[in-house]
């Protein structure tokens, strides 16, 4: 349980949720991509929660997904510092998450494109990004 439970207005359940968030980012910082999996129904979910969003169970474990996914949707953010994508990625294990596709020009990212997760360090913080599967061969 996170130490935030002693702060005014933070319930034990909220502190536990903050702990799940810290657990996810801590694993990324150590170079591991992990997501919660329900021990009761077996389904993976994202973003980390303390209760399974499918069956309501509190019996959760952390699992290492394959990292494979498919681009569900994509948009390009145009900035003077350089353009980048913001994508919704459907993981092979089921959850959908928001990330970026890197390693190709933003305009080349397509819906349905198979991708693979990797962890990049940006400004001293870990960031889960995806690369096209074709480029990994």
Oligomer: single chain
Count the helices. How many?
Answer: 1
Average pLDDT for all residues: 86
Strand order of the largest sheet: 5-4-3-6-7
What does this structure look like?
It is a single chain. By secondary structure, the protein is mainly beta. The protein is 13% helix and 34% strand. The protein is built from 1 helix and 7 strands, in the order αβββββββ. The strands form 2 sheets. It has a 5-stranded antiparallel beta sheet. A two-stranded antiparallel ribbon has the order 1-2. It is globular. It starts with 11 loop residues before the first helix and ends in a 5-residue tail after the last strand.
Write a compact overview of the structure shown.
This protein has one helix spanning 12-29, and strands spanning 35-38, 60-63, 68-77, 84-91, 96-99, 114-122, 125-132. With 137 residues, it is mostly beta strands.
Features:
mainly beta; 5-stranded antiparallel sheet; 137 residues; 34% strand; two-stranded antiparallel sheet; disordered N terminus
Task: Detail the topology: elements first, then pairings.
Layout: H1 12-29, E1 35-38, E2 60-63, E3 68-77, E4 84-91, E5 96-99, E6 114-122, E7 125-132
Antiparallel strand pairs: 1-2, 3-4, 3-6, 4-5, 6-7
